[in-house]
Amino acid sequence: MSTRFLVSGMVQGVGFRWFVARHARSLGLTGYAENLPDGRVEVLVDGSDEALEALERLLRAGPASAQVDRVERHADAAPLQAGRSFDIR
Question: Measuring CA to CA, which residue among 67, 63, 70 is closest to residue 15?
Fold first, then answer.
């Protein structure tokens, strides 16, 4: 199963998706980060439990240019398509 994170705060226009992609790739995760129309960033990922925990800690901290107010984690997300990379949408 994939894990879906919804990140709220000042997370668009501050390099947040690039921050997520860099760390997700280094953790061996696959998936994507995408801006949502409501101002949140959606992160949908597949990977080991350890890597997902590490990514969640990074999402909560965010890059210096962002202000993360909330991170929601949904572990029952629909499986990702067969992609084997981490993309920015």
Answer: 63
Residue 35 annotated among the catalytic residues of the structure: yes
pLDDT (tens digit, 9 = 90+) per residue, 25-78? 999 999 999 999 999 999 999 999 999 999 999 999 999 999 999 999 998 766
Which one from 35, 60, 70, 84 is the annotated catalytic residue? 35
Report CA-CA distances (Å) from 41 to 67, 70, 81. 12, 11, 19
Q: In the chain, where are the structural domains located?
A: 2-78
Query: Is residue 79 over pLDDT 80?
Result: no
Pick among 3.30.460.10, 2.40.33.20, 3.30.70.100, 1.10.10.10: CATH of 2-78:
3.30.70.100
Q: Which of 4, 17, 25, 73 is catalytic?
A: 17
pTM of the predicted model as reported, rounded to 2 decimal places: 0.92
